[in-house]
Structures are given as structure tokens and as C-alpha cells.
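Whiteboard transcription, Tuesday session. T.W. wrote the C-alpha cells on the left side:
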């Protein structure tokens, strides 16, 4: 049975103040934050022992190959306003100048207390538990040198006293556990996913230790005869997107607004009639960009276009999920006196992949597609009228107000475009039999079978979109031909690719539940069904 190196930090007050790059709450605490704490506690103001350097370099390599599994307690992020602290405002130069001018009155600029500001603090509150575990799975055969490194890291973990802000005091511990013992650790499982610079938790890589030592010496020597020299930043790290074990892996995404060709404002497209066209125009823009970047033709055909067959082949073969999905995003707008939320026109589009192995390719689209024009192909014979520019793509962050709802976490979701079922909902022709049947019990039986068939196909579509089987099995599913959102239309009015027109379509509402039927918040984007690569079957949160 394999063993794992388990480093545990136990917070003394079940609060964590660490933040990510843009000031958002960081949870769980990143592996890099733990690595820094271990290095700092080992050095303690001295040189890092040679054996410790060897152990940390080995941990860098291990993390680079396989980031640790993190087991953390449930948490609550407090809503604003939080609480405030009075802190120095980095203005002691004003006080020093007053003193140099002979002002020792301890008032006004000469008083340090004058130059303070209020700092808002919103810590993450841990629930039910106060321990976070980091699990590095060890090779089946551990060499003597690796065993020595593990033993040193176990000892180093037990010297940790702080992780996060200075007030995030912890008790550290390290231990070797087998798989069975690891299963008994309490908390939510956070599983490492794809690597990406724009999001995720920081993890150490080869060179992180060297960067930390360089920054430390730069800090010690920041004041010299030539004045102040800022210590160099730590740049040797990677970012890994973590997801909870009962959640789908977070998808790589690139979001764009649709601007008018003259870039004077949004270009809006009717969701019912134009969403499929927007998806197709975006796909062709991606193809042009890939050709300009000299992608191999086979790669363009598979990843961009979604064709598994060779170019020019008559029969189409699917490439599965290893392709881009082009998802038009209808605006969710507040309208009317009551400010009811309504599904509006498409003003944004999301490029993603249900295969996280394509995260680098999706990241490429952020630069390659921004500024690309969308052309509406015409059947006019004149060459100059064959294509007409109708919009331009412009990159926006995932936090943009029109994109954020589709990527947020929520318990209840409902479709803004209909789900195309992955199969026929009435292969036994129950509906035909119901028209001529008069027996009430037999009608109930057939309707029950029909309902079970549709329910099963929707749950199948959930799994096909990459969600865990547990979520598909426990979700509360509703469906009908008219939408659950205001502004949506009957399912038959939406544009559908020709090869999918034979399959039934429904508006669907999902309420996610865990194994114990407790409400479970699931992050987006949620897009399921046979049309998910074109943005059909897209959900928006209703919480």
C-alpha cells in the first residue's frame, strides 16, 4: 500500500486571512504558502542547512510532477463590511521630516498616530474543524535518499508557527500515512487539476527555493549607500486549479465581448435566432487565427472544428470532448418595475473545452481571438458580398458582470438555451399509444416510463458534460418545453445544428444535491446535452 507525506497545519482560532492576487479570499491555503512557511521556520534567520536544501529541492520536484491533494474544512467567506483595524499608513517619512525640522511637538505631522488608516479585514472562517492537510503521494519504491528527505520534511513541518498573515498562528505537524489512514482524514477533498497562470493556487516548482533565498537577502540589503532597492519578487512558481472532489474540474475559459465592427458599443444578437450563428462565426474566427499561427491542419480540424475525420472525408467522426466549445452568453438583465431578471440578447461569448488537457490551447485563444472579426457568410453570388463583418471579439476577464453569473457557484440552475437530449426520449412510441388509449392505469404507466426515460437522458447528459456521477444521481431534475427564465422561448424556436435536429429538446432546471440530499453549490459553466459545444443546453444560476 502506497504511503503519502502528510503535512498538517492546525489554526489556533479557525480563521485564515490569506488573500490571492486581486485581494480575493484564498482557500484552501496554497501549497506555495505552506512551502514558504516550512522554509522560513527551518532557516529561522540563519542559513538553510544543506540537508534542508536537498529536502526542499526534492519537494519542489515532487510538487511539480504531482501537486498535493489538499484536505480542508468547510469554510465561510464573510460578506462586507467585515471589521476594520487601524494600521500605519506608510507615511513615517513625513514624521521624520517634521522631526528633522525640529518639530518635536508630537502633534500634527510630528505625531505617528496622525498617519494611520483603516484596513478592512474579512478572514475565512473554518467550520467544524481547524486543520488543513497537504498530501504528497510517494513513489511505490522510496530510495534511501528520498526517505531521508521525507524525514527531514516531517521534522521541518513540526516547526511551522504561522501560515498566512502574522496573526494566522498554527501548529504544524508532519507524518507518513498509508492510503487507508489518509481516507480517515476529515474535511473536503481539493483535487489538483490543470495548470494555468491566470487562476488557481500557487505551487512551488524547481527554482522556488532559490527565489525565496534571493528575496530574503534582497530584503536584508534593501537599504544601502545608494538608497532603497526593492527586494526581487518570487517568480518561480506555477498555478494549479483545484476543485472539490464532489465537483467537476474547473474548465479553462476565455471570455469575449461582442463589439460592433466600428467598436462603438456592444453588438447584440437575438438569442433564439442568432446564438447558433454566433457560435459558428466564433469557431471560424478561431480557425483563421489558428491558420495564422501555423497550427497543423489536422490539429485545427480536431480541436477548432471538432472533426475527427481527415480533411475532405465524407463521413464525420467525433473527437469527443477534446475540442473547443463556443458558448454564446445571453445577458441576464433586470427589467421592469420589479427589476425581474430576464434573459436578453447575446453580447458575449465563452470559449472553453470540456477536456482540461486543452487548457494551453484555450489560453492561446485569449490573445489570438481578441480583435478578430466575426463574418456572416452570405449566399450572394458576388464575391465582395459573400462575407460581411458583423462583430468584433474583445477579451474580458471572467469577473466581467455579464460573464460572472455563468461561472459562479449556485445550488439551483435553469437553462437559457434548451438541452438537446443524448438520445430519443420515446423510442417505444409511448406518445402514439397514449392518443388512442382510454385505460387510466395504462396511461399512468406509459407516462411514468416516458418520464423515467427523459430523466435518465438528462442525467446521462450531465455525466457526459464532465460532472461526477454522484451529482447526476442526486440532482433534482425538472424539464418542460417552455423556459424557467423570463425571456426564454419555446424549445422549438431555437436554432439547432442539422445533425442534432432529430433529437428532442427541453428546458431543464437542476437543483444540485450531495449524497445526503443536502443542497450543494456547484460552479459553472453548466452546459450539457448534445449541443453543448455550440452553447445549447446552457444554464444560468437562479439562487
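and on the right, the sequence the group agreed on:
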Amino acid at each position: 500500500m502506497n504511503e503519502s507525506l502528510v503535512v498538517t497545519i492546525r489554526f489556533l482560532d479557525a480563521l485564515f486571512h490569506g488573500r490571492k492576487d486581486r485581494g480575493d479570499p484564498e482557500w484552501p491555503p496554497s501549497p506555495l504558502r505552506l512551502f514558504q512557511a516550512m522554509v522560513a521556520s527551518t532557516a529561522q534567520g540563519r542559513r538553510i542547512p544543506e540537508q534542508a536544501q536537498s529536502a526542499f529541492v526534492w519537494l519542489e520536484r515532487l510538487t511539480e510532477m504531482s501537486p498535493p491533494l489538499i484536505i480542508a474544512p468547510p469554510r465561510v467567506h464573510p460578506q462586507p463590511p467585515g471589521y476594520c483595524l487601524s494600521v500605519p499608513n506608510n507615511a513615517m517619512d513625513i514624521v521624520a521630516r517634521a522631526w528633522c525640522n525640529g518639530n518635536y511637538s508630537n502633534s500634527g505631522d510630528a505625531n505617528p498616530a496622525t498617519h494611520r488608516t483603516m484596513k478592512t479585514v474579512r478572514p475565512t472562517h473554518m467550520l467544524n474543524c481547524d486543520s488543513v492537510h497537504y498530501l504528497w503521494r510517494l513513489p511505490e519504491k522510496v530510495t534511501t535518499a528520498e526517505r531521508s528527505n521525507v524525514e527531514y520534511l516531517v521534522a521541518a513541518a513540526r516547526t511551522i508557527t504561522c501560515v498566512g498573515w502574522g496573526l494566522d498562528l498554527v501548529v504544524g505537524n508532519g507524518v507518513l500515512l498509508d492510503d487507508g489512514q489518509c481516507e480517515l482524514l476529515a474535511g473536503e477533498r481539493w483535487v489538483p487539476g490543470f495548470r494555468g497562470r491566470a487562476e488557481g493556487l500557487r505551487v512551488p516548482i524547481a527554482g522556488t527555493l532559490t527565489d525565496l533565498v534571493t528575496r530574503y537577502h534582497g530584503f536584508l540589503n534593501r537599504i544601502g549607500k545608494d538608497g532603497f532597492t526593492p527586494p526581487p519578487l518570487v517568480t518561480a512558481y506555477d498555478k494549479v486549479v483545484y476543485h472539490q472532489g464532489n465537483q467537476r474540474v474547473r474548465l479553462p475559459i476565455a471570455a469575449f465581448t461582442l463589439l460592433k465592427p466600428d467598436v462603438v458599443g456592444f453588438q447584440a444578437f437575438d438569442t433564439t435566432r442568432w446564438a447558433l450563428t454566433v457560435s459558428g462565426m466564433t469557431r471560424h474566427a478561431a480557425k483563421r487565427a489558428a491558420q495564422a499561427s501555423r497550427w497543423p491542419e489536422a490539429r485545427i480540424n480536431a480541436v477548432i472544428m471538432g472533426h475527427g475525420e481527415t480533411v475532405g472525408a465524407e463521413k464525420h467522426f467525433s473527437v469527443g470532448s477534446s475540442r473547443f466549445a463556443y458558448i454564446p452568453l445571453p445577458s441576464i438583465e433586470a427589467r421592469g418595475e420589479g427589476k425581474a431578471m430576464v434573459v436578453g440578447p447575446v453580447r458575449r461569448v465563452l470559449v472553453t473545452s470540456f477536456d482540461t488537457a486543452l487548457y494551453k490551447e484555450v489560453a492561446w485563444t485569449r490573445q489570438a481571438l481578441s480583435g478578430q472579426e466575426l463574418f456572416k457568410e452570405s449566399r450572394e453570388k458576388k464575391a465582395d458580398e459573400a462575407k460581411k463583418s458583423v462583430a468584433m471579439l474583445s477579451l474580458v476577464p471572467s469577473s466581467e458582470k455579464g460573464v460572472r453569473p455563468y461561472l459562479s457557484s449556485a445550488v439551483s440552475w435553469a437553462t437559457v438555451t434548451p438541452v438537446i437530449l443524448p438520445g430519443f426520449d420515446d423510442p417505444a412510441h409511448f406518445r402514439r399509444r397514449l392518443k388512442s388509449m382510454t385505460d387510466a392505469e395504462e396511461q399512468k404507466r406509459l407516462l411514468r416510463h416516458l418520464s423515467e426515460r427523459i430523466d435518465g437522458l438528462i442525467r446521462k447528459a450531465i455525466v457526459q458534460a464532465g460532472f461526477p456521477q454522484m451529482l447526476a444521481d442526486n440532482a433534482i431534475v425538472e424539464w418542460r418545453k417552455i423556459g424557467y427564465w423570463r425571456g426564454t422561448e419555446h424549445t422549438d424556436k431555437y436554432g439547432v445544428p442539422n445533425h442534432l435536429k432529430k433529437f428532442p429538446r427541453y428546458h431543464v432546471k437542476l437543483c444540485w444535491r450531495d449524497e445526503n440530499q443536502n443542497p450543494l453549490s456547484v460552479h459553472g459553466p453548466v452546459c450539457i446535452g448534445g449541443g453543448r459545444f455550440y452553447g445549447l443546453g446552457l444554464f444560468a444560476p437562479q439562487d
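Someone added at the bottom: The CA atoms of residues 243 and 250 lie 6 Å apart.
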